[in-house]
Specification:
Blueprint lengths: L1 H26 L4 H11 L4 H26 L4 H24 L2 H25 L35 H21 L4 H12 L3 H25 L5 H21 L5 H23 L5
Helix pairs in contact: 1-9, 2-3, 2-5, 2-10, 3-8, 3-9, 4-6, 4-8, 5-10, 6-7, 6-8, 7-8
Length: 286
């Protein structure tokens, strides 16, 4: 019986983490879009515990991806730092607002963000060529973003940014940190499109840069959640234990798995998860 309890306590979250990590390595996504609905619907955590544990788990699962991007020079470190510091200021505010909000509103916010990420992923799936190519591979990234493999020789050199661009990056981080603290997602779904539109860095550098920012901005919000007792550390660490090797496996499977089909399947999964998450909070599912 004890073995069964241990398996249920540690094994199930680790298996979920492995799944999340593999998808992260294959598609260049962060795990928050999966973790929040899984924690809420699969593990039965409260809305606040679900978002707080997701934010906590994002930190260890982001480290390997950030290191990979730094080594592969597929990011702009100065911009990532600027956004991360901006987000670090507001992520505790997002956590505080979540603690004051009704649970259904927090889950509604998470469902909307997950739904947006799903639509974004399906849109990219439509644009991806049905025929696999060397450029289809992506590595660890953040929600809503894409990134090339760390060793991609086609990745452009990191541009030298002006002070104005860094200030814009910090402002982007302020908004991403607030959203991240509130719904427990990484914030890449906000940062990547805004970086492309207002900072003007290449797409191949956007997701790696976003991942550095996510890693930094998640820390203060996680500390606040930890002090408030909102984190399920057993579930969070177990998921992280599985996601880190899963990301490595996923990155190695990039050339073997048809990205377009995978994006369609996963995008559809996220839409279903967002709808179920929303309906669950209003008791429509029973």
């Amino acid at each position: 019986m004890e073995a069964v309890e241990v398996l249920a306590t540690f094994g199930a979250p680790a298996a979920v983490g492995l799944f999340i990590g593999v998808l992260s390595g294959l598609l260049g996504i962060g795990g928050g879009t999966i973790m929040v609905p899984v924690f809420r619907l699969g593990f039965g955590l409260s809305p606040l515990l679900s978002t707080a544990t997701s934010l906590f788990t994002i930190i260890p699962t982001s480290i390997s991806g950030a290191v990979s991007h730094l080594k592969g020079k597929t990011c702009v470190p100065s911009l990532g730092l600027a956004m991360g510091l901006g987000g670090a200021v507001t992520s505790p505010i997002g956590v505080w607002l979540a603690s004051l909000s009704p649970s259904w509103l927090v889950m509604l916010g998470a469902a909307l963000c997950i739904g947006y990420s799903a639509v974004n992923m399906l849109g990219k799936a439509i644009k991806v060529s049905p025929k696999p190519s060397k450029q289809d591979g992506v590595a660890n990234g953040a929600e809503g973003g894409e990134a090339p493999e760390a060793a991609d020789p086609a990745a452009p050199a990191a541009p030298k940014l002006t002070r104005k661009q860094l200030v814009i990056g910090a402002c982007i981080g302020l908004g991403a940190g607030l959203a991240s603290g509130y719904v427990g997602l990484g914030g890449g779904f906000i940062m990547v499109p805004l970086m492309l539109s207002f900072v003007g860095i290449p797409m191949k550098l956007a997701s790696g840069t976003s991942l550095i920012a996510v890693l930094l901005l998640a820390i203060p919000g996680t500390v606040e959640n930890g002090l408030a007792g909102n984190i399920d550390y057993v579930v969070g660490l177990s998921v992280a234990v599985g996601s880190i090797p899963g990301a490595i496996i996923g990155a190695r499977l990039v050339s073997m798995v048809p990205e377009r089909a995978l994006r369609f399947v996963f995008g559809g999964f996220l839409i279903v998860a967002a709808v179920v998450l929303f309906l669950n909070e209003f008791g429509i599912l029973g």
